[in-house]
């Protein structure tokens, strides 16, 4: 069977179960777009390549399947850079295809040539420049394999125009053979034994769970572990939903904007059981003081994570789900401990709280969203800033893959296009992007995509007229010198309407619930402009570089 490179690409995508791709065309990808014209794959045309890559990322986080995006050469490809870095930092499986100038023009500063494999080397798990159409099918097979296995991540495949236009006699690729790429899935028994002994001996254990729990589907094993040893559990931002938010043993998120209970517990524990988490500096605070008196078990699929930020006493390398299963077989059940009781007392004494007086409080809006969606299938995405932290604090994530947010890179402009990817993947669910007024304007053009493809996402803008999180730092550490953080915003309701979406403005407390109910009932994209108190702060807060127990608020 004779096929063009572009036809091979479409065939391979279908064979990998890809039903949706997000992209933006250009000259060198015209052969691919031509092949997509009659293909049985949904292509969503975003309004910016950054929108496409974040949408693919959202799709991946919601489904666990690799997200796929496509961009043209040069500026199209470089517009993917933020989204690829974002996916790389959060270990999200993705395959990004970029067009490239024809092989004969490579290296000549040709029109719209950018060395995207060079540019993305440090921000992809792996990347390829395909120089011959005969290598295409094998390359695509490898790309999906690498993106999905081991520690997941983004893989980029750069396709010169003559490769996608070239025609060959198609041959199905053989089995994958990648010497040097051997992710460890099954942990070594000796490591499990040592870790299990440490658990059995500990009297004040704490489970610190990250995004690896979500990506490996280990939430049931995590719950079983916590209940068997009666340990308190704290999550990273990426781990939210990996443990039920309403569980009595849950202490909430830890770190810079963690709860007092979680941070105090981390300071007094004798054993940190880190599960699929990477000891990010937003979590550890001052490294020298992090869990000073504790031994550390670190369960992770990526050996490079062991000892990267903190010394590990008991590494367990392998798939988190399998590692927890092995650990569960070897640990002894603990009865209710004084330690857990102490953690529960902290949780009761220092709940997340805010004064619900005066103007519209952002925290109360998230609490209201929580209350009104208890009985619904909901996915929350966020942008980056104060609203992201409030979304983490005041909504209870009881299921994995329901909280979708940019963790490692902290990318403003992520949440809205990600929400489009989530909605494309989950058409029957309620998808809400909790946004700031600054962040929403970073990819506001994707309102056109939402309307065009009838993706009925809801955007809840917590509009404080500031780049709020930066303003908070200026207030606390720069003597309230608000240097370039005030925003003069457009009328978000009119903007929504101009794009063909629905806009609702909310200025008083009484309007919050009815506005949310109205928005949830409309089967169209809705922008809710919540005009909030301008100078509300996110607390608790560990000032940068401080020990976790030194919290403001
Ligand atoms: C692309 C990008 N640029 C800059 C920043 C730095 N930054 C972090 S939070 C923030 C303010 C966010 O403001 P807004 O979206 O209005 O949310 P708020 O904090 O007010 O809730 C900024 C500028 C970032 N995280 N991402």
TrEMBL record:
Cofactor names: Mg(2+); thiamine diphosphate
Annotated protein name in UniProt: Acetolactate synthase
Domain called Thiamine pyrophosphate enzyme central: residue spans: 195-327
Cofactor: binding details: Binds 1 Mg(2+) ion per subunit.
UniProt GO cellular component terms: acetolactate synthase complex
Organism the protein comes from: Desulfofarcimen acetoxidans (strain ATCC 49208 / DSM 771 / KCTC 5769 / VKM B-1644 / 5575)
Recorded GO MF terms: acetolactate synthase activity; flavin adenine dinucleotide binding; magnesium ion binding; thiamine pyrophosphate binding
Pathways per UniProt: Amino-acid biosynthesis; L-valine biosynthesis; L-valine from pyruvate: step 1/4; Amino-acid biosynthesis; L-isoleucine biosynthesis; L-isoleucine from 2-oxobutanoate: step 1/4
Short name of any one Pfam family annotated for the protein: TPP_enzyme_C
Enzyme class (EC, first level): transferase
Residue ranges of every copy of the Thiamine pyrophosphate enzyme TPP-binding domain listed in the record: 384-530
Keywords: Amino-acid biosynthesis, Branched-chain amino acid biosynthesis, FAD, Flavoprotein, Magnesium, Metal-binding, Thiamine pyrophosphate, Transferase
CDD domains (alphabetical): TPP_AHAS (cd02015), TPP_PYR_POX_like (cd07035)
Catalysis: reaction(s): 2 pyruvate + H(+) = (2S)-2-acetolactate + CO2
GO annotation, biological process: isoleucine biosynthetic process; L-valine biosynthetic process
EC code: 2.2.1.6
Domain Thiamine pyrophosphate enzyme N-terminal TPP-binding: from-to ranges: 4-117
Family membership: Belongs to the TPP enzyme family.
């Amino acid at each position: 069977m004779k096929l063009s490179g572009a036809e091979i690409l479409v065939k391979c995508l279908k064979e990998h179960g890809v039903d949706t791709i997000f992209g933006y065309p250009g000259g060198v990808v015209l052969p691919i777009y031509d092949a997509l014209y009659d293909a049985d794959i949904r292509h969503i045309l975003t309004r910016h390549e950054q929108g496409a890559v974040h949408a693919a990322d959202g799709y991946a986080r919601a489904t666990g399947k690799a997200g796929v995006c496509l961009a043209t050469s040069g500026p199209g490809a470089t517009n993917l850079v933020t989204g690829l870095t974002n996916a790389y930092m959060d270990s999200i499986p993705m395959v990004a295809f970029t067009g490239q100038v024809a092989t004969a023009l490579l290296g000549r500063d040709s029109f719209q040539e950018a060395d995207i494999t060079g540019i993305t080397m440090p921000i992809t798990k792996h990347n390829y420049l395909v120089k011959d159409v005969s290598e295409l099918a094998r390359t695509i097979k490898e790309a999906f394999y690498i993106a999905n296995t081991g520690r997941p991540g983004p893989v980029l495949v750069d396709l010169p125009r003559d490769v996608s236009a070239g025609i060959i006699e198609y041959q199905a690729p053989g089995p994958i053979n990648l010497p040097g790429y051997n992710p460890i899935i099954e942990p070594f028994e000796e490591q499990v034994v040592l870790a299990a002994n440490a658990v059995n001996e500990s009297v004040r254990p704490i489970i610190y769970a990250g995004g690896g729990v979500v990506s490996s589907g280990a939430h049931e094993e995590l719950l079983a572990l916590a209940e068997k040893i009666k340990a308190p559990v704290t999550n990273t931002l990426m781990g939210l939903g990996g443990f039920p938010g309403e569980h009595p043993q849950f202490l909430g998120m830890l770190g810079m904007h963690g709860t007092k209970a979680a941070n105090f517990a981390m300071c007094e524990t004798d054993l940190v059981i880190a599960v699929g988490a990477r000891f990010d500096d937003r979590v550890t605070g001052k490294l020298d003081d992090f869990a000073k008196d504790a031994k550390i078990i670190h369960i992770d699929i990526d050996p490079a994570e062991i000892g990267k930020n903190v010394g590990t006493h008991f590494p367990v390398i392998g798939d988190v789900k399998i590692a927890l299963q092995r650990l569960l077989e070897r640990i002894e059940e603990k009865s209710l401990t004084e330690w857990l009781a102490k953690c529960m007392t902290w949780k009761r004494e220092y709940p997340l709280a805010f004064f619900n007086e005066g103007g519209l409080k952002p925290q109360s809006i998230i609490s209201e969203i929580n209350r009104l969606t208890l009985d619904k299938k909901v996915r929350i995405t966020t942008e980056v800033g104060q609203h992201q932290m409030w979304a983490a604090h005041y909504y209870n994530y009881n299921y994995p893959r329901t909280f979708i947010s940019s963790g490692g890179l902290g990318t403003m402009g992520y949440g809205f296009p990600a929400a489009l990817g989530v909605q494309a993947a989950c058409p029957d669910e309620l998808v809400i992007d909790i946004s700031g007024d600054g962040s929403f304007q970073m990819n506001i053009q994707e309102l056109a995509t939402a309307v065009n493809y009838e993706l009925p996402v809801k955007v809840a803008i917590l509009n404080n007229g500031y780049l709020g999180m930066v303003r908070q730092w200026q207030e606390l550490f720069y003597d309230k010198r608000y240097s370039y953080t005030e925003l003069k915003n457009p009328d978000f309701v009119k903007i929504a309407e101009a794009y063909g979406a629905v806009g609702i403005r909310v200025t008083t407390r009484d309007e919050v619930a009815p506005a949310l109910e109205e928005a949830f009932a409309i089967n169209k994209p809705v922008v809710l402009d919540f005009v909030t108190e301008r100078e509300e702060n996110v607390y608790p807060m560990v000032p940068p570089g401080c020990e976790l127990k030194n919290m403001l608020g």
